[in-house]
Amino acid sequence: MIKLTGLDNKEYILNADHIERVEHIPESVITLTNGKKYLVKESNEEIIRKVIEYKRKIYTGP
Question: Nearest-CA neighbor of 51 among 26, 27, 30?
């Protein structure tokens, strides 16, 4: 799970395992495997970093 910020400045948690695609137009648009889309303030690079950190924690521990 990764913490992201919506365009309304509210933070929410997204299951990183369900991310299918990340686009930049100029916000980052995250498309999940079920087709639902989220607009977030984080850059694509930040999202990738958060997903990598999340996966690292799962496989190596906190």
Answer: 30
Report the Cα 25 to chain-centroid distance in Å: 15
Which tens digits make up the pLDDT trace of 39-59?
999 999 999 999 999 999 888
Q: Which two tokens stand for residue 26?
A: 């100029």
CATH number for the domain spanning 8: value is 2.40.50
Please report, as a single letter, which amino acid is at residue 11: E
Quick count: other Cβ atoms within 10 Å of Cβ 61?
Answer: 6
Q: How many domains does the chain have?
A: 1
CB of 47 closer than 8 Å to CB of 28: yes
- Domain residues for the domain of 32 are 2-60
Output the pTM of the full model: 0.88
